[in-house]
Specification:
The protein is an alpha+beta fold. The protein folds into two domains: 4-118, Roll (Luciferase, domain 3), CATH 2.30.38.10; 123-223, ANL, C-terminal domain (GMP Synthetase, Chain A, domain 3, 2-Layer Sandwich). 19% of the residues lie in helices and 29% in strands. It has helices at 4-7, 37-42, 87-93, 133-140, 177-184, 213-223; strands at residues 18-19, 29-30, 46-47, 51-56, 70-76, 100-108, 114-119, 124-126, 129-131, 146-156, 160-169, 196-199. Acyl-CoA synthases catalyze the initial reaction in fatty acid metabolism, by forming a thioester with CoA. Has some preference toward medium-chain substrates. Plays a role in adipocyte differentiation.
C-alpha cells in the first residue's frame, strides 16, 4: 500500500481503512482521516463507539498484553443474534457473555489501534513456535522476482508442522528454492525460513476469488509426499 499510493498519485488523506465482518454488521474498526501513513497501512483503525474489543490467547482463553497477537473478539450492539437456524454454530462463535470470536489473529496497541495479523486457523506451530503466515508473505513479497506468495503449514513428524511457501514468480523471471532461502537468511528469524519452497502457477480459489488455504495445504502435502 505504501508503494501503491505514490504510484497512483493518491494522497494518504484519501485513504480510509476499516475492518468488520458480516457477523458484526459490518464495521467495528475504522481509522481517522488524519492518521499517519503508518497507521493507515499497518492497522485497521480504532474501535467504534459503544463497541468493545479484546485480544485473547486462543488456546488458554486468557487476555494477552498489548501488542501481543491473539484472537480478536468483539462485543456490542453490532454483534449478530446468531446464525439462522443453527444454534450450535452460533454457540461456537458467540460466548455466553456475548463476545463474538472473529477467528482473526490481531493485536491492540496502547492507543487502541488494531493490527490484523492473519487467521487463527492458518497459524503455523513449528516445534512450539507460533508463526504467522501473513508476516512471512509480506516479507517474501519484497523479493523482486515474487509476484504472489501464500504460506501454509504442512505436517512434519518431528516438529508438528513445517513452513511451505507457495510462490508465483513474475512473468519472464526464473527463481530457485535456494535463492528464496538465501534471501531470507539474516533478515528473518531462522525458524521462520520456509523448509519448503514450491513454485506454482495458480492457487485454489472459491467462487468469489478467495484463496482456499486448506486446499492449498492439502495440495502441498500431496506434492511433497508428506
Amino acid at each position: 500500500m505504501r508503494s501503491f499510493l505514490p504510484s497512483r498519485h493518491v494522497s494518504p488523506l484519501c485513504l480510509q481503512v476499516a475492518y468488520g465482518t458480516t457477523e458484526n454488521s459490518p464495521v467495528t474498526f475504522m481509522g481517522f482521516p488524519n492518521d499517519s501513513l503508518t497507521r493507515k497501512t499497518e492497522t485497521v483503525g480504532y474501535i467504534f463507539p459503544h463497541t468493545e474489543a479484546k485480544i485473547e490467547d486462543p488456546e488458554t482463553g486468557q487476555p494477552v498484553p498489548l501488542n501481543t497477537p491473539g484472537e480478536l473478539q468483539i462485543r456490542g450492539y453490532c454483534v449478530m443474534l446468531g446464525y439462522w437456524g443453527d444454534p450450535a454454530k452460533t454457540s461456537e462463535v458467540v460466548t455466553a457473555e456475548k463476545w463474538y470470536k472473529t477467528g482473526d489473529l490481531a493485536s491492540l496497541d496502547e492507543h487502541g489501534y488494531c493490527k490484523i495479523i492473519g487467521r487463527c486457523k492458518d497459524m503455523i506451530i513449528r516445534g512450539g513456535e507460533n508463526i504467522y503466515p501473513a508476516e512471512l508473505e509480506q516479507f517474501l513479497h519484497t523479493h523482486p522476482k515474487v509476484e504472489e506468495v501464500q504460506v501454509v503449514g504442512v505436517k512434519d513428524l518431528r516438529l508438528g508442522e513445517e513452513i511451505c511457501a507457495c510462490i508465483r514468480v513474475r512473468a519472464g523471471q526464473n527463481c530457485t528454492e535456494e535463492e528464496i532461502k538465501a534471501f531470507c537468511k539474516g533478515k528473518i528469524s531462522h525458524f521462520k525460513i520456509p523448509r519448503y519452497v514450491v513454485f506454482v502457477s495458480q492457487y485454489p480459489l472459491t467462487v468469489s476469488g478467495k484463496i482456499q488455504k486448506y486446499k492449498l495445504r492439502e495440495q502441498m502435502e500431496k506434492h511433497l509426499q508428506l
